[in-house]
Automatic annotation (TrEMBL):
This is HAD-IA family hydrolase. InterPro entries: HAD-like_sf, HAD-SF_hydro_IA, HAD_sf, S-2-haloacid_dehalogenase. One of its GO terms (molecular function) is hydrolase activity. Keywords: Hydrolase. Transmembrane segments: none annotated. The keyword Hydrolase applies. It comes from Luteimonas viscosa.
Amino acid sequence: MSFPVRAITLDLDDTLWPFAPIGARIERVLDDWMREHSPATATMFPVEAMRALRERVWREHPHLAHDLSALRRLTLEIALRDSRGDPALLDAAYEAFYAERNRVEFYPDALEALERIAARLPVVALSNGNADLARCGIDRHFAFQLHAREHGAAKPEASIFLAACERLRLAPGLVLHVGDHVDADVRGAALAGLRSCWLRRDDHPAALADWPHQDVRPDLVFDSLAGLADWLDRQD
């Protein structure tokens, strides 16, 4: 298939890097940090209890679903409060989390492919997560980043896709959104009027072999970001 593409909007977690290893490391790092700086909190909220608290905070505050940073800070605030820890530790505890959250390990193909794509077209980071491009060392490849927290709504809401297109000053049909998530990325982008690319990596947590929806289909499907870079090269 061939069609014009003037810019790329790109998901981050599970698209440029796998998130599961990051999430596991965050739990260990936060537990170690609490054991050093707030032992009572670590005792009351070991890894499994802290995970359960985080999941409860997520459920009880759906109005913050687009703001993962706020949800994480609230989780840490409650853990410190309930364990009678020092509330003044909140900022430092969050920084311990955030530093580890941005220590990413890219998929083997991702960095080279990102460089190739960014050399051809403007690339925008469009994410529901809270990764920081500068901390991850890749901000130079992006025209800008638009997070759900900044926008006020998360993918698959059409408004976040359309806000990116507006900032690019391009019609949605000239923008290709690339991501791993069937609904948040691919279906959401397609319903917003963008072109869509499903990045279906073999190690994806959902491990879907086939496209599950009948109302829309992705314009492109690749198992690596390099596949998209190759496709763009062939459009000349």
